[in-house]
Design goal:
- This protein has 194 residues and is an all-alpha fold.
- It is 74% helix and 0% strand.
- The protein is built from twelve helices and no strands.
């Protein structure tokens, strides 16, 4: 669910960004029909996920949430981290978040034909509610968590995770900042090798 981070970690390459964004909607090797650099974006996404899942800092963040949200805690951390990326966007990019997001939405529209069905269904909501830009504020994150809770038929209780974010805000932000430095270094290395 950390859409913004995956798009950002495509380092301005549109085809890599498409693959990096849509990778969660593609199982196994069901991507061989896509353009070569889109395929590489999918593989980059998987490398980023593996790095994140094995890094001690996201594990530390997730542990704070595990008692309340069980296996959903990792998804929640992804959303928190996208919030901190959006909130602190000017630290990571010279381009405004609004311009970056609008360009990405245009990219999705221009490549609609190759998007997986799940992304096609999600895209109108994502754009109309401007998810990526609204990650920067707590109201936007609350809305995302509510939506995810509905998708789990209220089993995940993710809608309450906004309270945990507010309660441990500074700790989560510090963890994100430290982790994201490592993640950018790792992702650049992988990006240059693909």
């Amino acid at each position: 669910m950390n859409f913004l981070a995956h798009i950002y970690l495509s380092f301005g390459d549109d085809e890599i960004a498409l693959g990096n964004f849509m990778a969660d909607s593609i199982r196994a090797n069901k991507y061989k029909h896509l353009p070569e650099r889109v395929q590489k974006g999918i593989l980059l996404h998987r490398e980023i996920d593996t790095f994140t899942d094995t890094h001690p800092i996201p594990k530390k963040s997730s542990k704070k949430l595990h008692d309340n949200y069980s296996h959903y805690s990792r998804v929640i951390v992804d959303i928190y981290y996208d919030h901190f990326l959006a909130k602190n966007w000017n630290t990571y990019s010279d381009e405004s978040l609004a311009v970056f997001v609008d360009r990405f939405y245009d990219l999705l529209s221009d490549n609609y034909a190759i998007l997986p069905d799940g992304v096609k269904r999600m895209m109108p909501y994502m754009i109309s509610d401007n998810w990526l830009l609204n990650y920067a504020n707590l109201e936007g994150i609350g809305s995302v968590l509510n939506g995810l809770n509905r998708r789990t038929k209220n089993k995940s209780r993710m809608n309450f995770a906004i309270v945990d974010l507010e309660e441990h805000y500074d700790a989560f932000e510090t963890e994100f900042t430290t982790f994201f430095t490592d993640l950018v270094v790792f992702s650049k290395r992988k990006f240059l090798s693909i």
